[in-house]
Amino acid sequence: MHIVYFCDFDLSNPTGGKHRATKQKIEALQRKSNQFKAFYLTKPGHFYKVFFGISLDVQCALYLLKHRPDALIARGGSNYLSLFVTKFLGIRTAREVHGVFSNEINLLPHKGLRLKLIVLITKFYSKLDDLADIRIFNHPFVYEHYKKQERTQPFDLVCYNGFSTGAAAPINKEQSRKKYGLKANQRYLAFTGSVSEWHGVEYLVSLQQEFNRHGDNITIVVAGGSMAEYDSNGLCINVSPLNEVGCSEIITASDACLLPVKNNRISPGSPLKLYDYIAHKKYIFAQDIAGYSDEVERYDVGCTVNFADAASTRLAIANFFKIKKQYDDMYEDKPVTWDDRILNWLDNIKASLV
Fold it and tell me: What is the C-alpha separation between 231 and 240, in angstroms, rounded?
């Protein structure tokens, strides 16, 4: 199939998860499509995005008119013109839907005019979602929300995130620990997701207190942002901010990985770090919620815990260290790369063309 991909943000942010994931998706789409073209911004900044997002949409629309591809896959809020062209030419359109943004406004740190602009932008996103032929939801809760509002279509699909096959760090565990000043004989648990309210990072501080209380010789390393707001006593090791390579090295240095989240949004998200952990063949302790525990259990890469209960989580982790060597020896590759996920996208698009 001839596929066009459009997103109205730049892909150069070294610490941005969606930027890195989008680059990886584009690479996978290129490998899986007979013909492929991507449109995205090449410079950072909101000023650039406002004016050049429109220009990007015009470029995409002209490409569609000239080449008439099979489908346009889009993410963002700037492709009104290209979407209109697809309707005129009968080209299939698919939209990535990553959340119910109106439900998440209260979790943002912004106020005043900036917050009002964000609210307006989310309405544009929602309208574009409704105009598309196919929606690619990255969480089942978002799909169910749209379904209750009677906004879904027959070829909509739910598909979690994935990882790039080149995601693993090029250095080994010993080298990673030496680089970041971590002890050779200490047990380390890594969390490399963003330090934010919806990830429940305060659960990690409570868990570290439990480890310390029982003398477990286990330390949590956080590499997704500053923990100053949540961990004033510095109980966890905080080595942020780190880029993609740095986070990969911290995962390599760890004995296992943590995936907490708070149930305070319609969609708890499909955490990219889950798949980074799988790429590094690490055991994962995941919150008991869809998008986390179901993936961990489906692919047998860890266990489900309730991070809100530090005592029970600590026991699960202590039990893991009794069988860690056995688990490390049996870890196999899992079919959750971006190439695997993109095949699901393309299968639904192909089915819609019949």
Answer: 13
Condensed to tens digits (0 to 9), the pLDDT of residues 212-253 reads: 999 999 999 999 889 999 999 999 999 977 888 899 999 999
User: Which candidate, 269, 268, 254, places its Cα nearest to that of 321?
Assistant: 254
How far apart CA 182 and CA 184 sit, in angstroms, is 7
Q: Are 179 and 171 in contact (CB under 8 A)?
A: yes
The predicted model scores a pTM of 0.91
Which of 176, 233, 194 is closest to 13 using CA atoms? Answer: 194
Sign of CA dihedral 142, 147, 150, 153: positive
| H-helix segments, 163-309 | 173-179, 202-214, 244-253, 272-279, 293-298
**Residue 73 pLDDT greater than 80, yes or no:** yes
CA distance 11 to 218: 36
**Strands of 256-259's sheet in order across:** 237-238, 218-222, 187-191, 256-259, 284-287, 302-305
Helix (H) or strand (E) holding 2: strand 2-10
d(CA 195, CA 264): 15
3-state secondary structure of 292: coil
| Domains identified in the chain and CATH numbers | 2-162+337-353 (3.40.50.2000), 173-330 (3.40.50.2000)
Q: What is the pLDDT of residue 48?
A: 53
Backbone phi and psi for residue 192, each to the nearest 5 degrees, phi listed first:
-115, 10
pLDDT at 224: 86
**Tokens for 32?**
């899986």
Q: 100: how many CB neighbours lie within 10 A of its CB?
A: 18
Number of other CB atoms surrounding residue 166 within 10 Å: 10
Closest-CA residue to 336 (of 136, 134, 167) = 167
Spatial contact of 50 and 124, defined as CB atoms under 8 Å apart: no
